[in-house]
Each structure stands twice: as structure tokens, then as C-alpha cells.
Amino acid sequence: MNEFHARGQRPFVTSISAGVLALGADYLGHAFFSLPLLPEQVSFILLRLLPLSVFSAILRTLTVLARPLLLVGATLMIIAGYGLAGLLANRLAPRAEMAVVAGLVTVVSAAIALLA
Q1: Which residues, 6 or more positions from 11, have their beta carbon under 8 angstroms from its beta carbon?
Q2: How far is CA 16 from the centre of its chain?
Q3: I need a surface site. Which of 7, 13, 63, 100 has the fewest CB within 10 A?
Q4: Cα→Cα distances 22→47, 74, 81, 99, 101, Å
């Protein structure tokens, strides 16, 4: 049983770690070179999908905290997405786990950048 949990946790932890490092690099690139911030791009997409009544209710409720909380939420969603991608990659191609995760990250990041 422990072997199963260790095998299942390794890709998840590795992918979460990769997500944190990638987003850290993204935040540094944004701070030093004004590159687009991935959580900001995800936030823009999310806001386009929300109905206007829900968006205005959130703004009224959270006021000045709305944008920072949206960025934190988007960042956490992206990191969780990295973890899920790692689990999925491990399930589909256990030997090529990191290559598959890197490919998925590249494709998803490019798609978000193009959509936003």
C-alpha cells in the first residue's frame, strides 16, 4: 500500500514543484521585464466567462481585495493544474512523465497567452 501511495504522490509532488518554480519565474519576469503574467491572463479569461451580475456582486463584496484575491486564486488554480497534469501524464505515459508534463505546460501556457 505504501508503494502505491509513493508511486502516485511522486508525479503530483514533482509537478506541483515544477508549477511553483515556473510561476515564480513568471512573476520574476513580470517584475523585471514587464512580461505578461500567466495568472493575470487566466484571470482575464475567467472574468470574460463570468456573468456581469456575478462580477459586479464580487466587486461590491470584495472592493479593493477583488484583484489580489483573483490573482492568488488563479495562481493556486494553475499550480493545481500542474499537479493534475503530472498525475494524468503518469497515468498515460509513466516512463515519459516529465516530458509529457513539459509539453502540456507549454501547450496550455501558449493557449492561454493566445486567448487572453
Answers
A1: 86, 87, 89, 90, 97, 101
A2: 10
A3: 63
A4: 23, 14, 12, 15, 12
pTM: 0.74
What is the torsional sign of CA 74, 76, 77, 83? positive
- Radius of gyration (C-alpha) of the chain in whole angstroms: 16
Alpha helices in 51-96 (DSSP H): 52-62, 66-92
Nearest to 58 by CA among 69, 45, 44, 71: 69
The DSSP code for 95 is G
The kind and range of the H/E element at 4 are: helix 2-33
Grid cell 451580475 is found at: 53
**Low-confidence stretches of the chain (pLDDT beneath 70):** 1-8, 97-98, 100-101, 105, 109-116
